[in-house]
C-alpha cells in the first residue's frame, strides 16, 4: 500500500529537522523495514513536508513501531521539530492524504 502524509516543520527548526534525517539511527531504519515499509521519501517545500511511504499495512507498521524504544526516542525528537497539527499514529491507515488523481 502507498500512503501520502503532510506534516509541517517549525520554521525555526528546518535545519535541525534536515540534520536529524541525515542521522536516522540504523536501528530505527531496520525497525521500519522490519515492520513492513519498503520505501519512505520526504520532500520539503518551505515548512511543508510531504511523505510518500510504501508498506504492507500502515496501521500494523505503526502499531509495531509504537512500542519500540528507538521509535519512542525518535518521536520525542520529532515532537521538538514539528508543528504538531495531526497525530498520524493515532489515526493509523486513515491518516493518509486522499488520492485526487493518479496517472
Automatic annotation (TrEMBL):
Record protein name field: L-rhamnose mutarotase
| SUPFAM superfamilies, per database record | Dimeric alpha+beta barrel
Q: Which GO terms describe its molecular function?
A: racemase and epimerase activity, acting on carbohydrates and derivatives
> Out of the domains of life, which is the source?
Bacteria
Query: Which Gene3D superfamilies does this entry report, sorted A to Z?
Result: 3.30.70.100
InterPro entries named in the record: Dimeric_a/b-barrel (IPR011008), Rham/fucose_mutarotase (IPR008000)
Q: Which residues cross the membrane?
A: none
